[in-house]
């Protein structure tokens, strides 16, 4: 007589048969849910929901999700809903810290020649920020080391783009955007237009690191995962011009130790710039009197054609 089960009977065989039956039941459910979307009139909806179902079920089966974990997930999403209002969007923050925002941006802003890379939009853009002339100051009282920013906007053939609208916004040296003070101030944001040669220039403040909002469920997830909520120091840009792909991006500060640990995975090597610190007393490009040190950087922006893939 051989070992129990070696002849296809006994507990091992029963276990194998059980596992096969279990896998078949799980697969049958997935197939039924996928099939339930087969009648969607909208082909794109059908594609997205069927793929979502397949991947979601594969995830549940891979991690063998427990019912307690399923409940924890539901509670997490409920808490994200409760903290979300017209100013706070916890679901976008969740997408950001999962890298889903950056992956969607990568897919929809396909690499095109030497066009400048896009990065995450973030929650602190405000429509109708004041207009400044070239050489003006976006800080408007925001605390920080003065920083001179200049560059050009061109297309991918190198031709200047005059009249491009550039929106810029940034946190102050304490790590807060104006809208986080809750007192209606406007500071650290503005828009300006490129000149005939595509050039632009303005004063702002040298970017400093700050945390994403982390007093909600996404912050708790980061803490439980041993991850920091800090973003690498950056200055936001949104550039629009007729016939060209709108660019939402930031520039980062070379040497910032958070470049490899940005909480929303927004850093791209091509967007890391020198912010050269200037000793006190160094003459400024426009003759402005600055007390103490200041910094300067250059950001030459290249816009893809609007008709380029996934514009
Ligand atoms: C920001 O850069 O402003 C930001 C981006 C993603 C999440 C939170 C803040
Ligand atoms: Fe930001």
Give a structural overview.
This protein is of the alpha/beta class. It has two domains: 11-65; 90-303, Sandwich (Protocatechuate 3,4-Dioxygenase, subunit A), CATH 2.60.130.10. The chain is 29% helix and 19% strand. The chain contains six helices and twelve strands. Strands 1, 4, 10, 11 and 12 form a five-stranded mixed beta sheet that branches. The longest helix has 27 residues, at 10-36. It is elongated and about 90 Å long. The protein starts with 9 loop residues before the first helix and ends in an 8-residue tail after the last strand. The mean pLDDT is 94. Bound molecules: benzoic acid and fe (iii) ion (FE).
């Amino acid at each position: 007589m051989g070992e129990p089960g070696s002849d296809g009977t006994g507990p091992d065989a029963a276990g194998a048969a059980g596992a096969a039956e279990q896998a078949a039941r799980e697969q049958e459910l997935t197939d039924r849910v996928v099939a339930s979307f087969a009648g969607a009139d909208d082909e794109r909806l059908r594609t997205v929901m069927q793929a979502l179902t397949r991947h979601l079920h594969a995830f549940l089966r891979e991690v063998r999700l427990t019912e307690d974990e399923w409940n924890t997930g539901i509670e997490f999403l409920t808490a994200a809903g409760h903290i979300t209002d017209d100013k706070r969007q916890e679901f976008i923050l969740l997408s950001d810290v999962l890298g889903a925002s950056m992956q969607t941006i990568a897919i929809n802003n396909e690499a095109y020649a030497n066009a400048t890379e896009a990065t995450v939009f973030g929650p602190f853009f405000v429509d109708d920020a004041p207009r400044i002339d070239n050489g003006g100051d976006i800080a408007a009282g925001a605390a920080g080391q003065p920083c001179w920013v200049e560059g050009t906007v061109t297309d991918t053939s190198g031709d200047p783009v005059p009249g491009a609208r550039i929106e810029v916004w940034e946190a102050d040296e304490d790590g807060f955007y104006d809208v986080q003070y809750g007192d209606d101030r406007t500071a650290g944001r503005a828009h300006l237009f490129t000149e005939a040669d595509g050039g632009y220039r303005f004063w702002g403040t040298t970017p400093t690191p700050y945390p994403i909002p982390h007093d909600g469920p996404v912050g708790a997830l980061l803490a439980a995962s041993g991850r920091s909520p800090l973003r690498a120091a950056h200055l936001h840009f949104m550039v629009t011009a007729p016939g060209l792909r709108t660019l939402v991006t930031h520039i980062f500060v070379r040497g910032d130790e958070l470049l490899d640990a940005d909480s929303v995975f927004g850093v791209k090597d091509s967007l890391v710039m020198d912010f050269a610190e200037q000793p006190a007393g160094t003459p400024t490009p426009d003759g402005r009197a600055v007390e103490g040190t200041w910094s300067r950087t250059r950001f030459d922006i290249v816009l893809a054609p609007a008709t380029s893939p996934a514009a």
